[in-house]
Design brief:
By secondary structure, the protein is of the alpha+beta class. The chain is built from 5 helices and 10 strands, in the order H-E-E-E-E-E-H-H-H-H-E-E-E-E-E. The chain is elongated, with a radius of gyration of 38 Å.
Length: about 300
């Protein structure tokens, strides 16, 4: 019997979509994935002209039928060359202009019953593998949860960690998560520890100051105040423009009114201290249901 390559125009995706089904016909041969590849003729032998792979050579060995074909070149995609390689001769170095791989790819073919058994065994194996992976993942999650609980219990005696747990924000949450994951305070930089200490000190000052805020004065009105500086944090950067850093300074007056001053002046040295001074009302605002007075031209009398 003589075998030859036969080129057949074919849409492989449409063929799979139409032929891959549970009630597989017994007049087809299938690959290991249960997809019909070639039809059987009246004599029970595969007909090359019905092969889903198009240009194919069918061969029979001791274990059954196999389909041998040349796939498109993985470098040029079957074009044989490219204009991008014109300076070296246009021709693809992998396939030497033929557009196909030099070695034949081999696909074993199975009867409907054999393909059904292969698919069933594969499904059972994949199900077992998924179950084992899920079990391993649950065990890993349980170990991590137990280690995390033990670490949190160990950190419960750390005053800095306890204070950190009461802080909000992405930075505080990231530091807390890394501590609970096994990091120590020595693993953080001096700047990171300084920021944490500043946030804790600011939170303690804000907790000790009673806020019952009302708007102060009217826009463009200058007023005197006596207040406690509860926060002074940077909101700008000097990375590209010197002296461009801006700070948010938050003060609470003795009457419980909130004053906010956006400026290039840093009042960090006054945080937690009571100061007196004057400021001009810029506008009235509300932040998180708290009335606050935005000011400008703030002057602190305590500033030497």
């Amino acid at each position: 019997m003589t075998y030859q390559f036969i080129e057949i125009p074919f849409s492989f995706e449409a063929h799979i979509k139409g032929q891959q089904r549970e009630d597989r016909a017994h007049d087809y041969l299938y690959d290991k994935w249960g997809r019909s590849v070639v039809a059987l003729n009246e004599s029970g032998e595969p007909d090359p002209q019905t092969c889903a792979y198009g240009k194919v050579l069918l061969k029979k060995n001791k274990r059954g039928w196999v389909a041998l074909r040349r796939d498109k070149c993985s470098r040029c995609g079957g074009q044989g060359g490219s204009q991008a390689w014109s300076h070296t001769g246009w021709k693809c170095y992998r396939c030497h202009g033929e557009g196909t791989e030099r070695n034949l790819s081999q696909t074993a073919l199975y009867t409907a019953d054999a393909a059904e058994k292969l698919c069933a065994r594969r499904a059972a194996r994949e199900k077992a593998e998924r179950a084992a992976a899920e079990k391993q993942e649950r065990a890993r999650a349980e170990r991590e949860a137990a280690a995390r609980e033990a670490r949190i219990a160990e950190l419960s005696s750390d005053e800095r960690y306890v204070a950190l747990c009461n802080l909000k924000g992405a930075f505080a949450g990231d530091i807390r998560s890394r501590l609970e994951a096994g990091k120590n305070w020595d693993d953080f930089s001096d700047k990171q520890r300084a920021v944490v200490d500043h946030m804790i000190a600011t939170a303690q000052v804000e907790a000790n100051v009673e806020v019952n805020s009302q708007h102060i004065g009217s826009p463009k009105e200058r007023f005197a105040f006596e207040a406690t500086v509860v926060a002074s944090r940077q909101i700008g950067t000097e990375a590209f423009y010197p002296y461009s850093a801006r700070f948010l300074n938050r003060l609470v007056t003795t009457d419980g009114n909130v004053i906010v001053w956006f400026s290039t002046t840093h009042l960090e040295r006054f945080v937690g201290k009571q100061v007196t001074g004057k400021a001009t009302v810029k506008k009235h605002d509300t932040y998180r249901d708290t009335a606050q007075t935005i000011v400008t031209r703030l002057k602190v009398d305590n500033d030497a």
